[in-house]
Amino acid sequence: MNLEFGRVTLVVLFALLPIAGIALGLRAPALRSKIPLLVAFFAGLIPIFSMYIPKKFLSGESGMSPRLDQWLIIVAGFALLLGITNVVSNGYRKISRRDRGWPYAIVLLTGLFVMGGFGIYGAISGKGIGFLPDGSATPFRWVWSAVFQPLQSTIFALLAFFMASAAFRAFRARNTEATILLIAGAIVMCGRVPLLEFLASPFPALAPSAAAASQFMGRATEWIMDIPNGAAQSGIIIGAALGAGSMAIRVILGIERGYLGLGKGE
Amino acid sequence: MQAFFQRLLALDRRWVFLLVLLSVTIPIVIPIGLPVTTTSSTRSAFEFIEALEPGDIVWLSFDYGPSSAPENDPMAEAFLRQCLLKKVRVIVSAFYPLGGLDLANQVVAKVTAEYPDAKYGVDYINLGYKDGAAAVMRTLGQDITSSFPTDVNGRPLSEFPIMQGIRTVRQIDLVFTVATGLIGEWWITQVHSQFGTPVIIGPTAVSAPKYYAFLNSGQLVGMLGGMKGAAEYEKLLAAKHASFRKFYGETVGFTATKGMDGQTVLHGVILGLIFLGNLAFFLTRGNRAGGA
């Protein structure tokens, strides 16, 4: 048995400690939140320490941090399962109570079970979820290409219609900020496509001027995207990262406990 | 005139929908063949891939779903064609849960059929889908097989010559992520920033503005922004390689260059609608003030 320090520590922190926590929680409800907080504390600290402390047990190939990364994939798989359970229980409740829109819940659950069922069948039978050796589609693949793919494409394509309608009704130069946005938007829309060449196509004499103007609009678009947009995006990304970092610190230190799903005072 | 603009402001939106429908469908049925100009972000992506040598290895990740396939498929196809032509080896994966794997299978089957000499497991390999994208990407820096022990068909990676000597993502010469949403960003933060692997991204036009920040900071080698980026890439490929000039000139299938016709007309229609809406808004402002 390989009793490396990192491995043993992980087992203690993330297996024995939670088991002890569950046992204690059954006997003393006041302790229910304490052990999960400790688990979160160590799960948050180990990857951070591994970035700064080059010790084998921490950041080596089979160290604690890479192992936690692998566990994260497994936990993500369970999160998927949790999501399915949640969808099924919510849908079932909606149907049984005949809540508003309950027939849609039937459609949702039917889609979930049909698609999931074909996927599981493909895995169990060994036929997979793609094409069979004779070139025909598996049931999963057939539903995907005949139902799921067109539905997804349709939903996204509808955006073009609503965006055009919204732009016509709401994109107004009401004040200075809106006017700047309108002008920048118009330049980018014009500069991203050969619109001027298209408009000048019935008039060959205008073609060289249209091409030159189009190139100018293209350069203006690149400048807008690179400089003002790039600067604003950098600010947003840095701000979001700082926010995520501070939230992570709150979770690690046990200040933020909303994820535990406990009531007040627990 | 005032009455006309009043009526214009109250226009039934179904007329706008009809206009949008016609402006997209007519150029698809009757292609216009408008010129495409290239941008620096696409050119730098193209030049980086052109500079790769035969035998180099790249990672192509399908991080999008059917909703954005008309924008993203042409990018993935063009990149795969270029790699197979240049004998650059390709590792394919999918991290998008809603159909990323199916699109990967579809595109790989379509493009590799055009290159009968390309051998599965030697010139390219499909690792399939893995849940938990960001966490998986972190493990790629330690050991690819810890997250992808087998290919999409369940065969161990050690069986394939393409994976011989490839242990981590640090040994990959380039990651090309065709992405919608957050997954493209994770390739930058989890793979490029931590393991140094160069990354090129092919996002949808909607998410492209975000990536200019990463381009400016040098964390991205290049970017193919939306269908326009894909059309630029097709143009660069056709300009460089005679076989692609022939292919993109003759193919009856959908290409980004063909899609740009519809997008150009639609942009013109939307700009016209915005102009008319504002004109009507300002010309009828007096009436509204009087009415109030």
Describe the structure.
The complex is a heterodimer of chains A (266) and B (292). Chain A has 266 residues and is mostly helical. In chain A, 77% of the residues lie in helices and 0% in strands. Chain A is built from nine helices and no strands. Chain A has helices at 5-27, 34-52, 56-59, 64-97, 102-125, 139-170, 176-191, 195-200, 207-252. In chain A, helix 1 (5-27) packs antiparallel against helix 2 (34-52), helix 2 (34-52) crosses helix 4 and helix 4 crosses helix 5. Chain A is extended. In chain A, 14% of the residues are buried. The mean pLDDT of chain A is 89. Chain B has 292 residues and is an alpha/beta fold. Helix content of chain B is 55%, strand content 11%. Chain B has 13 helices and six strands. Chain B has helices at 2-9, 13-29, 40-50, 69-85, 100-113, 133-140, 144-147, 183-195, 208-216, 226-240, 242-250, 256-283, 285-291, and strands at 57-63, 89-94, 124-129, 174-179, 199-203, 222-223. A six-stranded parallel beta sheet of chain B has the order 3-2-1-4-5-6, with helices on both faces. In chain B, helix 4 (69-85) links the parallel strand 1 and strand 2. In chain B, helix 6 packs parallel to helix 8. The radius of gyration of chain B is 22 Å and the shape is elongated. In chain B, 50% of the residues are buried. The mean pLDDT of chain B is 92. At the A-B interface, helix 4, helix 6, helix 7, helix 8 and helix 9 of A face helix 2, helix 5, helix 6, helix 9 and helix 12 of B.
Shape of chain B: elongated
Overall radius of gyration of chain A? 28 Å
| DSSP summary, beta strand count of chain B | 6
Q: Give the overall pLDDT of chain A as a whole number.
A: 89
Q: What proportion of the residues of chain B form beta strands (DSSP E)?
A: 5-15%
Q: Give the low-pLDDT segments of chain B.
A: none
Oligomer: heterodimer
Terminal residue distance of chain B: 21 Å
Output the number of helix runs of chain A.
9
Sheet with the most strands of chain A? none
Proportion of residues in helical segments of chain B: 40-55%
Q: What topology, given as strand order, has the largest sheet of chain B?
A: 3-2-1-4-5-6
